[in-house]
Amino acid sequence: MLIAVNYHYIRKDFSQPHPGIFGITPDNFENQLKILLGYGNFISQATLAARIRNREILNNHEIEFIITFDDGLKEQYDEALPILNRLGIPAVFFVNTSNFENHHFSLVHQIHLLRSQISAGHFLELLSAKNTVALSLHEKSKAHAHYRYDDQETAELKYILNFKMSFEQQSEIINKEFPAHFKNPNVLHESFYMSHSQLKHLADLGYLATHGLDHIPMGLYPANEIKRQVKESKLYLETLCRKPIYGISYPYGSLEACGGIVPLIAEEEGLIYGFSTERAGNFNLEKPLLLARYNCNDMPGGKTNLFPELSIEHVNHKTWTYPNQIVDTE
What we know:
By secondary structure, the chain is of the alpha/beta class.
């Protein structure tokens, strides 16, 4: 069985006026890796790609882990990579290339940074002032389930931003608020995202992959935009690093974000594997462009250990189809 474990922010200090940026400390990261070493081995994206190409069958009597990082954050390179190197554990870093090509912040990161300065309640008031559509009870339930590690108000805020508002609607609000709280965005950008040389180093290690051009839920966009997101991102990294790019993690990773034709387009553009955020173990590689992946908090050493639930019954509880819709077997 293959278990993918994903990380975002890794920093020594998460102190901030409001809870907007969440993650794991380097010490906790290293401790979690050592715990996982007691359960199984770690594989690289090259090994994963080779198994997919060769149509290999996974050994479900053994556990293998693949460690992943989303967003191309500088702290991942500075704090996590040295630990991985010391422990001899490979990883994959998925990056949004518009951050490097255009030297701007992903909207999602502007939101994270703003949320670290203003409360979720204040943020919801900003959205309400723009007559943002309210969530139904069903949507609130989905929000609470998807953002299980957030309080309800924060989960609903994230759901509205990520799935009820268009990129343009979000930008209109955030572009007005962000400069008021962050006066030197260029300086902040340099400390927030990896450098070109760091991307090239990761590519040389075989650790680099794409997270799309922009950090958007691709499944909510038309086919031509999905294709642009995948194709331009892949091309940028391959041109910069002179290495093939064959893996993707889909921003947000939910059914809405990466269902439908998204994995098919990724395959057409030459990608071999793709990760969603469906919380499950992978018992086979039959749908390589729609692999499941756990948040690090789901693993031993995280906030909620789902490891005891890793069984065929658990994985079959929700079966992702390719390229259609999720089938709830309850």
